Amino acid sequence: MTTIPNPFDPARLRLDGKKGLIVGIANEHSIAYGCAQATRALGAELAITYLNEKAKPHVAPLAEGLGADLFLPLNVAEPGALERVFETIAARWGKLDFLIHSIAFGPKDDLQGRLADSSGEGFAEAMDISCHSFIRMAKLAEPLMVDGGTLFAMSYLGAQRVVEHYNLMGPVKAALESAGRYLAAELAPKNIRVHILSPGPIRTRAASGLEDFDTLIEETQERTPGHRLATIEDVGLATALLATDAARIMTGDTLFIDGGFHLMG
What are φ and ψ of residue 35, in 5° steps? Predict the structure, then answer.
């Protein structure tokens, strides 16, 4: 007699036995750390990366506290570095179930100046690290997602609207959101889902590079319907849920985690 799987099995809301790569933890305030905490709480085994030796002491205690199975250096701008991370994952795990890309960078002069004044070099660097590295990760993850999987990257409302002082990063994040849609379509036959998450402003190390960020925080909180900004825990919980089998049919959208701020005119 054939047993029909229960579509409402509570195990579908867990990540037990799932293996995930988290890229972008700089410290305990990082969005990536909130995602790592939430996915670990649901049972996932984690590989965590750190940017360089300067960053390592800040990330190592967090990785240890999470019981990370792998703790690896990764500067996506360094030739071969990303490939080495995936080679290690292949050797250690032989598979990958989800990855979280939570990195962005642009030279300060280009970030804080007008888009019209941005340099070609700065624009290319921002696009490579903030967008194309996600595409590269998707390509490397594809053969390891033998049972399907989920890819995540982080955006912001400035990709879809003009947000004062977001400048160069607006079109870069717009490219990331578009890349997410194309990757979702290309990888769907292999049961690989893609989500671009768009939290509201959060006080992270990366955000500190934006001009007048404190003003942006205050104005966003005032205009958000519930006057409450998202936290790294909010983003983490949403990410963890989307990584479970409960969200198996969802893919390709930019999902806002911003308390409804994006609804306001």
Answer: -65, -40
